[in-house]
Specification:
3 domains, 20 helices, mainly alpha, single chain, 0% strand, Serine Threonine Protein Phosphatase 5, Tetratricopeptide repeat, globular, disordered N terminus
Amino acid sequence: MRLATAALALALLAGTAHAQDAATRWQRVSEAGVASANAGDFAAAEAAFREALTLSEQLPPSDPRRATSANNLGFVLYAQGRTREALPYYADALSWRDATLGPTHPVTAQSLNNLAEALRLDGQREQAERLHRRAIDIRRTRLAPDHPDLAESLNNLGVLLTDEQRFDEAQALFAEALAIRIKALGERHSAVAEVKSNLGALAFARGDYAEAERRHRDVLATEEAVRSPGDPEIAVALSNLGQVLTAEGKAEEAAALLDRALALRLAALGPDRLETARSRHGLALALIQLGQAERAHALLEETVSALERLLGPTSPELAPPLKDLAELDRNRGDYAAALPLLQRAVTIEETNYGATDPRVAVSLNNLALLQGDLGAWGDADKIMARAVAIEETSLGRDSPELIPTLENHAAVLDRLDRREAAAAARQRAFAIRVATSSPSGASQP
């Protein structure tokens, strides 16, 4: 993402004294907002950009400062994790630039990129892809073939396609973006490291943990070479490598890296930043593997509390730490504590993704198992049946992802002495496994 600077629209307009005064004040306020944002003081930046947007409304409708103000406010909201609030401002900036600069202007492409990234994070991937591809078309047509802005769009579309598990397409985009950035900036540059990190994330998504580890170690070496030791951007590389090592079961090294990432962010950013909350969460997962349940539990509680303050009580980013906290409570036999946490996670996911999203089905599966732990097998049956129905609708009746859900449902049905229904569920899971040749490791209640 890029923060549009006040220099983009500094030229004062000829016109009334009132308009000139508004333009002068707009320039001063916008410069203050940019300075605050670059210093990491997003609250001050937000206040300045809101004032700048109000001032821009006194300028002619075609004045580019109106789009700049909306874009900057969108950026600072996005940077705070308030993606949904950022969307209308990014959309306004794009609309104004489409109208005043034209639909193929390179600055319009920047608005397309910004709105697309916010839409991606909000889960609106189809619309995000369309906007990213439009930005790429503009940049291929209007800019040099090795322009850094083209690399930005290629990289961002690659991230979206990785999320969509369209790995070969993403690989090609990352490769082109990497070649452009290496040519322009050299091998050891943070922008080059960004694409290499995304290639590591792609390998991780493919299940190639060895390749992901190799790439993330290379990125960490680059970041440590080009940045000062206390730079919080190093924490990004530490966190990414730590996540890979956690997945590989190398929890001791992972915890050391993630502890270091958290310390960097606490020192540079403070305790109440999204980046710091995410570091707490990542470290907690490594500590769980190491059997340090008490410290992990405390970190997860701090994560939830910080995310509630920063993003609000229904942010989708709350669901993962709530589920991890519930699993910790469940593993130590405190089912009564785990239940409201998991129920809240399900409600958050339903609110943000819709009641028929497959992510909701995964959480319902876990909620049903927890109800079984509590002896509420009738409730577990209803919840598991709903999980099956969601996966059938969203993934297809023959999806291999149904296998563990069907087998878990069969185990619940056994507890209710519904042997015939349980056998039918197991038979169906077996048929899907044979048809897809996909092994599964279903957990049993």
